[in-house]
Write a structure and sequence with these properties.
Elements (H helix, E strand, L loop, with lengths): L5 E12 L38 H13 L3 E2 L6 E4 L9 E4 L6 E7 L5 E11 L3 E7 L2 E5 L6 E7 L6 H18 L11 E11 L9 E6 L2 H20 L5
The protein binds adenosine-5'-diphosphate (ADP), magnesium ion and zinc ion.
Zinc ion binds next to loops.
Length: 243
């Protein structure tokens, strides 16, 4: 029997693929569903000596999204390298914005008036796609998606239920689609959410330890993941264990 009452605390990192014709740092097409490795060049496959040139349209879409979500727009922008070695990333680093994101401190207002604060929005590039089931001999790599522009929209941990999370995502999708910045198709991966979740006793002022569930691509999967992870964390706490 559970005696304590628990509150769920959720913050989202939402990735949106921008509707530009070309990639963020080269002239390759961003078209979805083309034959593997037909939209690649020395820049987006990280060949030595190639240099990135920023796509102006990416900056425009980022600023539009920031203005529509009541953010401050950062005038002095800078990109940073996030290093990781994995076969979906031939450069072994992702170009992202760590220290000076283009948008900061905004919010999205849900129907009913609750505001979900946005911590920041930054510009970055997508990685390639690994196909693990296409052949029994191993894994295939498709680099067409390498360098496709993304906005990462990071919320504050202001959501408390799966319904609020879905309401926030629907509102965000509506805003971004209206701006023409992305089609936000969850099933094609042009909108993806990482769900950060913790639980705490009702009345507690401090947050619990969070876990992060990455790349969820349907509202149903998100609702399912939230319910399962909430239960898992509560059970751990009830047993006196740590998340
Ligand atoms: P990281 O790079 O480690 O994922 P970020 O700052 O990009 O860190 O994202 C952190 C996300 O986790 C934000 O969306 C934030 O709202 C959320 N978050 C932070 N603390 C908590 C917590 N205690 N419970 C739930 N979500 C949290
Ligand atoms: Mg994260
Ligand atoms: Zn390219």
């Amino acid at each position: 029997v559970m005696s304590k009452q628990y509150e769920t605390v959720i913050g989202l990192e939402v990735h949106i693929e921008l509707a530009t014709k070309t990639k963020i740092f080269c002239g390759c097409s961003t078209e979805f569903g083309s034959a593997p490795n037909t939209h690649t060049c020395p820049v987006c496959t990280g060949m030595p000596g190639s240099l990135p040139v920023l796509n102006k349209k990416v900056v425009e879409y980022a600023i539009r999204t920031g203005l529509a979500t009541h953010c401050n727009i950062t005038r002095m922008n800078k990109f940073d390298r996030k290093n990781y070695f994995y076969p979906d990333l031939p450069k072994a680093y992702q170009i992202s914005q760590l220290y000076l994101p283009i948008c900061t401190e905004g919010y999205v207002e849900l129907t009913g008036g609750k505001k979900i604060r946005i911590k920041e929005i930054h510009m970055e590039e997508d990685a390639g796609k690994l196909l693990h089931d296409a052949t029994p001999d191993g894994t295939l790599a498709d680099y067409n998606r390498c360098g496709v522009p993304l906005l990462e929209i990071v919320s504050e941990p202001d959501m408390r239920t799966a319904d609020e999370v879905i309401a926030y995502l629907e509102k965000l999708r509506m805003i971004v689609q209206y701006l023409g910045a992305s089609d936000c198709k969850l099933q094609e991966g042009s909108m993806r959410a990482d769900v950060n979740l913790s639980v705490r006793e009702v009345g507690s002022e401090t947050f619990g330890t969070r876990t992060e569930m990455k790349n969820l691509n349907s509202f149903k999967a998100i609702a399912h993941a939230i319910e399962g992870e909430r239960q898992r964390q509560i059970e751990l706490l009830e047993e006196g264990k740590e998340v």
